[in-house]
Amino acid sequence: MKVIDTGLSGALILEPQVFGDARGFFYESYNQAKYREAGIDHHFIQSNVSRSAKGVLRGLHYQWPNPQGKLVSVLEGEVYDVAVDIRRGSPTFGKSFSVMLTADNHRHFWVPEGFAHGFCVLSEFATFTYQCTALYDAKADAGIRWNDADLGIDWPLSVPLLSDKDSKTPLLKDVPPERLPIFVS
């Protein structure tokens, strides 16, 4: 497995070793020992799958309190995936990292607790999977505006299809400090 540092403390791209031939391919989508060696020593307690059409943008979502770390990947299609460090006191607060996740590149993106996460679908549809370190908590559910100019995210589409919830999220600077995670070094 190849591990790629994103420059955001704890956020990583993981490229599994893929074994393929004329019949298809095989790869380990998760191996606790290898992930622990890469610095991801978390227990996943919820696994989700979503399917979205071209142009859909989901995010930027996070939970606080009760944050979730997410190990995300794409089973079908392709998405532009983004993580934003929103941990108060972090040296990379407000910085983002984006990566293309596709069914063909088999990449996994580790989005640590304390980060906001979102993605937009570039293929006709995409099937997206993620393992979470905490259960979904509706009371802790929160979000940040996908097109917050201060974040400088270069989304590959200008007019995405948004949920009503995602169209009403605040800018990062308008989120009360007590609704943001705290950086722990």
Descriptive keywords:
mainly beta, six-stranded antiparallel sheet, five-stranded antiparallel sheet, 185 residues
Helix-strand layout with pairing:
Blueprint: E1 2-5, E2 12-15, E3 19-21, E4 24-26, H1 32-38, E5 46-53, E6 57-63, E7 70-76, E8 78-85, E9 96-102, E10 108-111, E11 115-121, E12 125-132, E13 141-143
Antiparallel strand pairs: 1-2, 2-10, 3-4, 5-12, 6-11, 6-13, 7-10, 7-12, 8-9, 8-11
Description:
By secondary structure, the chain is mainly beta. It is built from one helix and 13 strands, in the order ββββαβββββββββ. The strands form three sheets. It has a six-stranded antiparallel beta sheet with strand order 1-2-10-7-12-5, with no helix packed on it. Belongs to the dTDP-4-dehydrorhamnose 3,5-epimerase family. Keywords: Isomerase. InterPro entries: RmlC-like, RmlC-like_jellyroll, RmlC_Cupin_sf. It comes from Rhodanobacter panaciterrae.
- The strand line-up of the biggest sheet is 1-2-10-7-12-5
The SSE string, one letter per element, is EEEEHEEEEEEEEE
Mean pLDDT: 96
The separation of the N and C termini measures: 26 Å
Task: Estimate what percentage of residues fall within beta strands.
Answer: 35-45%
State the helical fraction.
Answer: under 10%
Largest sheet: 6 strands, antiparallel
The backbone outline, from C-alpha atoms, is globular
Which class best fits the helix and strand makeup? mainly beta
Cα Rg: 16 Å
Q: Please count the beta strands (DSSP E, at least 2 residues each).
A: 13
Number of helices: 1
Q: Uncertain segments of ≥5 residues (pLDDT<50)? A: none
Family: Belongs to the dTDP-4-dehydrorhamnose 3,5-epimerase family.
EC number: 5.1.3.13
Pfam family, one: dTDP_sugar_isom
Function: Catalyzes the epimerization of the C3' and C5'positions of dTDP-6-deoxy-D-xylo-4-hexulose, forming dTDP-6-deoxy-L-lyxo-4-hexulose.
